[in-house]
Amino acid sequence: MGLYQTMRIFTAMLATETNTFSPIPTGWSCFEGSGIERGAGITREGTGSLLHLWGEMAVADGHEVVHSVAAWAPPAGKTVRSVYEALRDEILEDARRGGPFDLALISLHGAMVADGYDDCEGDLLIRLRGVLGPEAVVGVELDLHCHITRSMLDQADAIITFKEYPHIDAGARGRELFRLSVDAAAGQTRPVMATFDCRMVNMFPTPTGPMAAFVAEMQDQEGRDGVLSLSLGHGFPWGDVEDSGVRVLAVTNGDEAVARDVARRFGERFFALRDQVSERGLSMDEALDRALAGPSGLIVIADKADNTGGGAPGDSTFMARRVVERGLRDVAIGPLWDPVAVGFCRDAGVGARLRLRIGGKCGPESGDPLDLTVEIRGLSDRLVQRGLGRPSVLGQAAWVEADGAHLILVERREQAFSPDLFTNIGLDLNAMRIAVVKSTAHFRAGFAPIAAGILTTTGPGALLEDFASIPYQKRNPNYWPRVEDPFALEAAEVP
Ligand SMILES: [Zn+2]
Fold it and tell me: How many angstroms separate the alpha carbon of residue 59 from the centre of ligand 1?
């Protein structure tokens, strides 16, 4: 039994990362394809793994848990309005029917946009607060690629974001949120939150260098000066909403002035690090040239602009076309989303040669389709790669070769997580000079051990990495790197 009286705890998850520039609608099939879990059907390995963890912690402390829905969809374009509303209302109904609750632990993304809702998380939390009442403690865990909004801050008692990108710490942050929220529900602490807007838009992988040091500094601050938790919301650059961008979020025990002060101190420090923590990608040809000039062994090039993990279609042909046009051999490229081409290959069979139209189907961000004469080198009924925590299923797949360019075509939209996306269909990466992978950061853990070098290219594609020129309509243009010093100007003065 735990330290406190028995509490009634409610949990739910509703999450997707919305690239408002992506042409792909996020509908029922996207959530169902990832496996929606409910109530007693919440599993350790499934979509609701975080809810499962909270449930175990709660039961171990003698509390009573009611799990609602756990729904997650892969990043893509705006969520269909009726789908968002149905999942939201199911959560609200569960909270109403199962209540009253002392505490709610909610797993959200923080960058979910639906038709008619620029801030899905804020909308959900306003309504949930209405059901739970003002006394219940609401603890929220977010992905760090989140837009932290006023509504979220007003409705939640405590918000914690992931600290690591790649996101290896969802469980660790979930444990912290559980402890912090239970302490608050027991009246031992009174969390208050404050944020600092860094006026920055960029992507910030955390494994090495100044970003790793910044994460460590945040963790050092936690538990001191009344600071219960400190988060850096990186923002999600391809979400065109008012609150898009980097924010430091401090949670303190009852002292708002300290929360404001700590958030500002860390926020100003992060802004000062802006040139060191932001990486500049190479053009496609620069990346290929450097790879060819690089050390022997496999050079991995990340095609960040077509990372499905950021909502891009995953069927862009820009890099594959450059490889073919330049006549480069021993280059592996994948995964490229094209279920139609996979179907043709399965009918033709291994060893067949055929003319194949590949990719470029989703929109201008995907480039033109690539017409190649290919040999089918391998087929898979169900290609699986190691993912983050759990396996990533690519579905039916084909390995096709056109004069030394080797493409892995897949049925399901997924980014590259690990080399077995190539090797599990029979392609030997030891025989390759270059592997082009569609991913921004999550490929690193799997590929770094086998790569002689890693390069990144910026596109073209749906995830435009020229952060100064993302065509925002709703986001305030007063941000770095669009303006050199966004703290010097008022928004109205920005050209
Ligand atoms: Zn993320």
Answer: 29
